[in-house]
């Protein structure tokens, strides 16, 4: 009897890379339905709070344009802190 295939172990870095790629493309939302204002994305990037940003966080999992914008805001914050 053949051995069942083992799932390959995946590194955290690989998983995060896949997740970012997937969330950036899988949910186009061309009509921008339910999108929060940019100010809410910026607020979440600067001062993340599960209680204050639960609905925005959930939205990011189903809206690629908002997810990409949020990632842009995080990158800008990170580059400012590195200066």
- Tertiary shape: extended
Given the helix and strand composition, which structural class is it? mainly alpha
Largest beta-sheet characterization: none
Total helical elements: 4
Summarize the structure in words.
The protein is mainly alpha-helical and 83 residues long. The chain is built from four helices and no strands. α2 crosses α4 (64-82). The mean pLDDT is 91.
Keywords:
mainly alpha, single chain, 83 residues
Summarize the structure.
By secondary structure, the protein is mainly α. It has helices spanning 12-25, 38-46, 50-60, 64-82.
Topology:
Blueprint: H1 12-25, H2 38-46, H3 50-60, H4 64-82
Helix pairs in contact: 2-4
